[in-house]
């Protein structure tokens, strides 16, 4: 059993660094790869060199989910290696054609931000940062990609890993579990902090022919239960070091935090703050205006949970959501 080596790569995001997990034996396999920025490439090249490797030695790059800090360097690595890129059904389009997917994501986000009650002149500020991300994220040629699904077994480090679909933070997210040693490569499903349920849409239109939003935080809560029940001996997360605490302690902490924030959200609705952005401005007043999109994604998630619980209801007036307690 070989342990994956943590290559810590810098990102331009508030999360800090992202992990690429490297298996050296029996063949070099990389799980996730950072985004296409010079400092990330430099750190990856240095990390590989410390193990006597270069990008050209990589045989497989396995991508956990379609987010820029995990998949953005794929295009660069395709050019600088002959590696296969292993990508799940859930994540295929993001790796194969990120320009289309990202364009759709930005348009959808602009719409949601308006519905959340953001002032029109701020909508552009909030989504312009997103638009720039396209420059640090390139697709991988489809002829280099190998498809896997939840029935597949992935060979890494001389072991066979199961694939677990873990929607919530990202609908495209998969984690990898090695059932003999009970190790988990958790992507951003299990982190030391509660991951943001990124606002996203279903690729297909719903029965009414409308674009439908994925309820990220409720899905994340369901995924947490799935992992809570799993026997896990080691967790290799997408950000931060290997877990020291048992995974159930980390999950309980996350659930507790989400519960407290959700209750805070409920109190604000009760006191008459009716728009998602109004709630965000109170709960995340310490965030800069351009970074509030992250807080807003959390608030939308708390409101989704409160609506599921029947505690809050929503109506739309002139294109803006208004929430009140039931
Ligand atoms: Zn992510």
Structure description:
The chain is α/β, with parallel strands linked by helices and 326 residues long. The strands form 3 sheets. The chain has a 6-stranded mixed sheet. A hairpin with a 6-residue loop joins strand 1 and strand 2. The site of zinc ion has 6 residues, from loops.
Class derived from helix and strand content = alpha/beta
- Rg from C-alpha positions? 20 Å
Q: How confident is the prediction overall: mean pLDDT?
A: 95
What would CATH call the architecture? Answer: 4-Layer Sandwich
The number of helical runs is: 10
- Describe the largest sheet: 6 strands, mixed
Number of domains: 1
Beta strand count? 13
Low-confidence segments: none
Distance between the termini: 54 Å
Shape: globular
What topology does this entry show?
Elements: E1 5-10, E2 17-23, E3 29-31, H1 38-50, E4 60-62, H2 68-71, H3 74-79, E5 84-88, H4 92-96, H5 98-115, H6 120-132, E6 145-148, E7 153-156, E8 159-165, E9 174-178, E10 183-187, H7 216-228, E11 234-237, H8 247-270, H9 276-283, H10 292-308, E12 312-317, E13 320-325
Parallel strand pairs: 3-4, 4-5, 5-6, 10-11
Antiparallel strand pairs: 1-2, 2-3, 7-8, 8-9, 9-10, 12-13
Helix pairs in contact: 5-6, 7-8, 8-10, 9-10
Residues 65, 67, 70, 169-170, 188 line the site of zinc ion.
